[in-house]
Records
---
Amino acid sequence: MIPVITIDGPSGAGKGTIAQMLAIELNWNILDSGALYRTLAYFMKENSISLENFKDNQDFLKARFKVSFDPGTPGEPVRVIFEKQDITHIVRTEEMAKITSNLAAEPLIREFIKPCQREFVTAPGLIADGRDMGTVIFHDAKHKIFLTASAKERAKRRQTQLKRQGLKVNMRTLLKELEERDKKDIEREHSPLAPADDSVIIDTTNLNPKGVVKKIKTYL
Ligand code: C5P
């Protein structure tokens, strides 16, 4: 069986960075499921597809919605490739995050994306980053990590990330929006954000990425 390591947790807990570091080190594939949802949100917007006409466009979406990820370089976000274009910076904005968080609460959308996520399981292994990787999508994965950190620390990390992309953001607004999205992810009916019973929970508030990877390796 192809091994899968799931990394779940709220926004800014460090999932992307850690998934990237592990994928590069192990030379495994990477699935950034948040970016997958973001890309679907972007593609729907581009093609004027909404929840109302989603079913009528399902065949079109199935044929065209092919996303791939490149772990890229440490320190930079995992790269999102769609229709032969690098759309990383298009989908990784706070505006897209907000739209995505609303869409991702919809069972129709989650069901559509489910098989797309499972297609990423290819040899030699997969690092899957998201909210429900360990609880729903890869519930039989042997290794499950749940990363968490204080809201303040997570907002600070997000701010650094956005600044690096040349985007200006207000810390207070960022924190408020991050908490709102977390609340929505935790309280939603379908695939809410929660650690799997058999996951290892790591609080990354006072750890640097190398420290987190070290902890994970000890566990592995
Ligand atoms: O991780 P990222 O911030 O890119 O995720 C964007 C949004 O997608 C999250 O706020 C969450 O609502 C949703 N998401 C999800 N399930 C996943 C990954 C992301 O609902 N597995």
---
Amino acid sequence: MASDTAKRKIGIFGGTFDPIHYGHLTIGQLALEVCQLDELYFVPAGNPPHKAFQHVTEAMHRFTMVKMAVSSHPQFRVCDYEIKRKNPSYSMHLLTNFREKFPEDELYLVMGADSFLELELWYHYKELFSLVHIVVMNREGSDILSLEERASCYKTDYHADIILITSICLDVSSSMLRQRVKNHLPITHLTTENVVRYINEEQLYLKQVKNRA
Ligand code: ATP
């Protein structure tokens, strides 16, 4: 029988990643360190239900950029589960898939403060709490008291395990990068060199710009 010490800690970090930026990578690193994760899977969304009304860059481009950005990190991985699904995918599907893949391990779902505060809009969100620990990264503009109150409610009502990382992550967003590319401004300080090169080669973000919801 496998002993408790053999359990691994697996992080799951979903996002649109349109494109991936240093904020995402910093969140990933903090989650690894604070929760002592063994590995962290970045999961680019295929056709995200909550952003269905916006224009989102083709999944293969977003997936390729994530792959490039995490390629040199020994504990970062990329998961293509969502981009391969034909129908819109919800987090419950993804987490059930991870649970099947890692039946013995502990799962940690990583997200930013804005996503955490929208959790009630997620499909069957209460079921998440019995499947995963939730790691919430504070974000510029978020109110830490609201985060703490919400975490405390979920703990009391659903026995959720919520890990709040209260230091502010970098003040950067994918919308900011898209806007800067459109305005022909540099983004080399906001994402990795190979991603910058890819954006230039594929001529991404020169036309449409959408703000963070
Ligand atoms: P957009 O500007 O297009 O809305 P985004 O920068 O928020 O994009 P997403 O891919 O939508 O990027 O975010 C994936 C996850 O990462 C979300 O849970 C989001 O809250 C979190 N996140 C992204 N950037 C930051 C940041 N700078 N600080 C904290 N959390 C962040």
---
Amino acid sequence: MSSVLKDKHIIIGITGSIAAYKAAILIRLLVKSGAEVKVIMTPMAKQFITPLTIATLAKSPILVDFYNPENGDWNSHVDLGMWADLYLIAPASANTIGKMANGIADNLLLTTYLSAKCPVLVAPAMDLDMYAHPANLKNLETLKSYGNRIVEPASGELASGLIGKGRMEEPENIVKAVEDFFFQPAELSGKHFLVTAGPTFEPIDPVRFIGNWSSGKMGYAIAEELAKRGAKVSLVSGPTNISSTHPNITKTDVVSAEEMYQKCIDIYPNTHGAVMCAAVADYRPDSYSNVKIKRKSNDLSINLTPNKDIAAELGKIKKQEQLLVGFALETNDEVQNSAKKLQSKNLDFIVLNSLRDKGAGFNHDTNKISIIFKDGKAEHFDLKSKANVAKDIVDQIVRSTKS
Ligand code: CTP
């Protein structure tokens, strides 16, 4: 199933043309691709193909009149125009094209055209001489000047037996034109990002470690959002309970800060940027006991030695065209502290979470962030789900990514 058309709302307008039979195939293909379809037929179109056939394929009753004379039920052209993501008029006769170009509104198909807010795609169908007539060509040019798109008719044998340009384009090709219309190239395709996520665990002995409460949710949400927008993502993750499923994400599991550092330093030089979301332990025990440390009656102290600051190390090797984004989790003097980190780690911007904000930080499904920039400017966001926070951060990454 074509995902581009899934759940898209498409109005199909059918006019009086022998090519109306092809509209049946067109509707079947669009519905099969997941689109939701409503069909408006001109009174003349009903002479070429039955409403029963079209309604069955469209999975909804067709619309012809402004109202149902039996019960007065009103077919609002304004509502239809608002509902649609696209209005596809196929086949479009010379008569309908002429009326569209001149603002004539004497049936539901045309009133809907005039009130539609959505883009309009027109697939003309007519005899070669009608098509080539300067009046028709002028009308098509007028429609284009209104921003409507034309699916050019094909050349070939026509209903009249003549051969030339005017045949409505084949349904498969019209569907292709509809797909092309909806297809948005992913804004980060061709880009590669490194994302760190989760905590690091610094082993003390075979059963104990120093760790922190990071759940990894924020980093995974960012990896997911980058991947959705087409980027290739190398996710380097400390121990978490989350799995990532997007095909663009390659995940490497690590445990300690030293392991995370080794992976990042290998990956970063070949990326367009890195988002340092992991809560890296700043210290590790300076020695590791191969055997479980036994309980004794006296005090036990563990000497700690500093870990490498991964973000700062990447900041040292950062190239002009690369991006480096950091996080700061602060409890006090939030903006000043994060601005200092931004400078010392050579970051492009830093995302601040304050533990003073309710619903922000570790283990929550929500977060409240501010983005601090090199020039000291800050942008503050509301409390949102981590998925929506990830969108805000990736929007900023898109704006800051050097092409
Ligand atoms: N960071 C890192 N490696 C470390 C420590 C931090 O990559 N060893 C990154 C984090 O992923 C984050 C940023 O640096 O993007 C800031 O982390 P944070 O723990 O807030 O800051 P620290 O520099 O460790 O400062 P402090 O703990 O003193 O607040």
